[in-house]
Every structure is written in C-alpha cells, then in structure tokens.
Amino acid sequence: MGAFRVLQLLHEPQVVNGLISRLHNQNDPTRTRGILTALCRLHYTDGEWKGDSWGTRPDTSGPYYQPADWAETSKIAGFLNSALHEADHDNAAFLVAELTRHKVQSPEYSRLF
Asked: What is the DSSP letter of 47?
C-alpha cells in the first residue's frame, strides 16, 4: 500500500485520472479503500502562504495547513460524491470517515449524514 501513499502526494491530473480508472475495475476491497483514501487526500492541496494566513497558531491537524482547491478538486469531489452514493453501508462509513479525516467539505456530504 506504499504506492498509494506516494500517489496521494502527487497533485497531477494523470494521477487523479489513473486512480479513478483503476477504481472502476477494482475487486480487492483493500485496494479500493486505498484508492478512495488517496483521492480524499488529493481533494485539496496546500494553499500559498502569504505571510499572514496562519496567524500565531497554524492548524496542524492536517493534512494541509491551508487547504486550497486546485484544478482537479471539482472532478475529485464529483467522483467521491458518486462513490458515496453507490457504496454499501460499510464502504460508505469508511468513505465518510476518510472525508472527515481529510477535512473534505461539501454540502452534499453533510446532507447525507
């Protein structure tokens, strides 16, 4: 599962497309969860620090000090939303936990739970 740890740090459109395409053909539940976790982590990137945005106490709870959208955020959000709607109870609970852990904010997710 080390490969997913590396992929979730690469904010590249090719990585996002590759993870999404692999998830459609995945039968291994462990790999499915690894892909979903990587996509949750890729949802945001770290925003540009402008010298005053953290204040005296930055949010160090992670995964980013200053979460910011990037070019693939909307694509990832749409995919995670459809994955959540299609998931069985166990996978939906897992995905909601990952969305929460990675601080992915969406009105769609809050309406579901």
From this structure: P
Judged on CB neighbours under 10 Å (0-12, 13-18, 19+), 89 is exposed
Residue 8 identity (one-letter amino acid): Q
Q: Cα dihedral angle (96, 99, 103, 104), rounded to 10 degrees?
A: -120
Residue (of 75, 93, 92) closest to 83 by Cα position: 92
> What amino acid occupies position 72?
E
* Domain boundaries along the sequence of the chain: 2-47+62-112
Residue 29 in tokens: 């539940």
The model's pTM is 0.86
What pLDDT does 59 receive?
A: 63
Residue 64 confidence (pLDDT) = 80
Two tokens, residue 25: 């053909």
